Amino acid sequence: LHPAWSLLSWTSSFLMVFGGAVPYIPQYRHIQRSGNAEGFSTRVCLLMLLASILRLFFWFGKHFELTLLWQSIVLIFTMLALLNLCCAVQQSSRMSTSRHFFTDFDPKYFWAWSRFLDYIQFCLAFTVLCLFVTYLLIDSQLYVETLGFLAVLIEAMLGVPQLFRNFKNKSTAGMSVKMVLLWTVGDIFKTTYFITNAAPVQFWVCGTVQICIDIAIFLQVFIYGQGEHEKYI
Questions:
Q1: Which of 199, 190, 107 is nearest to 156 (CA)?
Q2: Is the dihedral of CA 197, 199, 201, 205 positive or negative?
Q3: Pick from 117, 121, 227: which is nearest to 171 by CA?
Q4: 141, 154 in Cβ contact below 8 A?
Q5: Domain assignments of the chain as residue spans, ordered by start
Q6: Looking at the domain that runs over 158-232, which CATH code has it been given?
Q7: What is the mean pLDDT of residues 116-144?
Q8: In 20-140, which ranges are continuous DSSP H helix?
Q9: Cα–Cα distance between 180 and 78 in angstroms, integer?
Q10: Quick check: helix, strand or coil at residue 24?
Q11: 3-state class (DSSP) for residue 23
Q12: What's the CA gap between 88 and 207, in Å, rounded?
């Protein structure tokens, strides 16, 4: 390969691996500075963790590019770091003595546990479940393809809760436009990367869905405005 093309290929791979984590850096720093995690929905972490873990098991059934595998691993650690910070901040500011644990198996407090350890336990339990089912069905093409669609579909839905929240409130107050901008840039880049590198169809189809959701949120910014509330950056 031509040296310039090799450099471009290496750079795009590097951006694919670490670029997905970049939009969450401003949110992490904001929580650190403010000591308040209320502006960030940890369910974003839930969706990203589920999608990334499913993608790992999809790779065992269909060996796609290693760059995308490493991207999933980086995102898992990024989400866990965010959850760890949110738990630490919430514990320091929690006034109630009420505590909730993963092992309580109480649906009412799902993903609203008191300790970071509980989120780790959930991730391990989900991983073990995926491992068991994948071991049994690894030779089923239908299962493998479904696994891939679930992984990227869940990731594609990251913006949906924000989209519906804006629609319900008829306002985008409290939403970081910079966060959505970084999502959009990243989604366009990775979808282009998927298409040019012949990634499985699941990746670029759901990448296109993500771009459409990002655009819809931007349209809400112009239609509803952001009001005068503080925007989380």
A1: 190
A2: negative
A3: 227
A4: no
A5: 1-137, 158-232
A6: 1.20.1280
A7: 94
A8: 24-34, 43-61, 66-93, 116-137
A9: 18
A10: helix
A11: coil
A12: 33
Per the CB < 8 A criterion, the answer to whether 202 and 149 are in contact is yes
Grouping H, G, I as helix, E, B as strand and the rest as coil, residue 104 is helix
Provide the CA 172 distance to its chain's centre, in angstroms.
Answer: 20
Model confidence at 181: pLDDT above 70: yes
The torsion angles phi and psi of 176, rounded to 5 degrees, stand at: -85, 115
Alpha-carbon distance of 97 to 55, in angstroms, equals 38
Q: How many CA atoms lie within 13 A of 87 on its CB side?
A: 20
Who has greater pLDDT, 58 or 149? 58
Residue 152 in tokens: 């990227």
Opening angle at CA 147, ends 110 and 18, nearest 5: 80
Phi and psi angles of residue 159, each rounded to the nearest 5 degrees, phi first: -85, -10
Phi, psi of 20 (to 5 degrees): -65, -25
16: nearest Cα among 214, 188, 205, 215: 188
Q: Whats the size of the chain, residue-wise?
A: 233
Residue (of 117, 159, 133) closest to 53 by Cα position: 133
Mean pLDDT over residues 138-153, rounded? 88
Is 17:74 a contact under the CB 8 Å cutoff?
Answer: yes
* Residue type present at position 197: N
Q: Is residue 12 classed as helix, strand or coil in its secondary structure?
A: helix
Alpha-carbon Rg of the chain, whole angstroms?
Answer: 19
Cα(54)–Cα(176) distance, rounded to whole angstroms?
28
The answer to whether 87 and 119 have CB atoms below 8 angstroms apart is yes
Does position 230 have pLDDT exceeding 80, yes or no?
no
